Amino acid sequence: MYSLQPDNLDAIRHHWQHRPLYIPTAFADFVDPLEPDEVAGVALEEAASSRVVIQESGQWRAEPGPIEDFSRFGDQGWQLLVQAVNHFVPAAAELAYAFRFLPDWRFDDLMVSFAVPGGGVGPHIDNYDVFIIQGQGRRRWQVGDRGRHRPRPGHQTMALVEDFDAIIDVEMAPGDLLYIPPGYPHCGQTLAPSLSYSVGFRAPSQQELIGQLADHLQDQDLGNTRFVSSTEPTQPQRISLSHQQGMAKLINQLMADPDTLGPMLGTLLSQNRFELDLQPPQPPLTLSQLQHALQHGAHLQRVGGLKCLQLEGDDSSLFLDGQRWALPGSLGNAATDLARYHRLEGHRLTPLLACPKAADELLQWVNQGYWYLDDDDRD
To answer: So what's the pLDDT on residue 155?
Structure first.
């Protein structure tokens, strides 16, 4: 189990979304959740997203995965990056859980990279918060200040920026942690063969919110109120200020309606950018088989990367993978357990399994691979 000390958490909360922060030995006696050859193996998974970035003479280029033969890249100047490794490797998911002092809806994925000396992706700026944990090996990280940073010539497809003056310049060892808020340029250079873990947190943009709102209104056949006015402009070519304000009011009314906004946000924020590693049981389980397994010591384990969210004020609804599951109000505690805990003992599911409708719906989620039975006794 990976954990951060309370003083480290306080420092992170103080810097969150404001300033970069370097914490040496944030994870004492850090043990890598996987080895370099396992990272390469995850990159070959059909559902995995990966790439190799090669640096040659101050220029960077990327090759999309999957890649089976790395020998052609040599032993200098390249880095393998694999997204959402927490979807495939439970030990990597455990590392991501150390950051659950932040809300689950913000969590994007845990990216793992393996790099040889000289490897890196070049100076760049991210539009999300990232925590970089150093695994085996050593890497030098430089972070610049926010400001106007010009795109790096010749790298249009990689969104790199020109070199910057560093406000943080550190050589990271196993267990060290670097936090970088959005908008700060940064660059990593590998000094010895290294594993690095990037825990990313993302918030929706205005475009994403408005787009999701439009989709939600269409799907639910909502938002059909039309604009009406009591006065018209004297010049026919004009869209009057009162008409502009009236139409804006229509939009604001939708956004202020909790029955519209809440389900829309639950649907949007429970979606995953990267494909889940769903492995439905074959053949599908019956309800009696599920109940029997839970009664005899099996646990219900959530698949890696699945977001299971609740709206404050509506404990009986769950949002997962962009879908809503409305449970009877009496099952609010069971719904909260499903959302809060990644692994559940059978007794926590007893109220839910006692409700035929809820039990059937849970069985459907299990047979789709969102949860699975785990007989491993970790307690």
So the answer is: 76
How far is C-alpha 305 from the chain's CA centre? 7
pLDDT of residue 57: 83
Buried b (16+ CB within 10 A) or exposed e, 352-366: bbebeebbebbbebb
Q: How many CA atoms lie within 13 A of 378 on its CB side?
A: 10
Domains parsed from the chain with CATH numbers: 6-201 (2.60.120.650), 206-269 (no CATH), 287-374 (3.40.366.30)
- Determine the Cα–Cα distance for residues 23 and 36; give it in Å rounded to an integer: 24
Round to whole Å and give the CA distance between 12 and 98.
Answer: 13
DSSP 198: E
Residues 6+ apart with CB under 8 A from 322: 267, 268, 270, 271
| CA nearest to 137, candidates 178, 190, 78, 194 | 194
pLDDT value at position 154?
A: 78
Give helix 287-295 / helix 356-368 axis angle, nearest 10°.
Answer: 90
Beta carbons of 238 and 166 less than 8 angstroms apart: no
- What are the residue ranges in the chain where pLDDT is below 50? 379
Q: What is the pLDDT of residue 209?
A: 94
Strand locations in 173-287 (E): 177-180, 186-192, 194-201
Instruction: Give the pLDDT score at 377.
Output: 57
Distance CA(266)–CA(135), nearest Å, equals 34
- Residue 321 φ/ψ, nearest 5 degrees: 50, 40
Predicted local distance difference test score (pLDDT) of residue 134:
98
CB 95 within 8 A of CB 33: yes
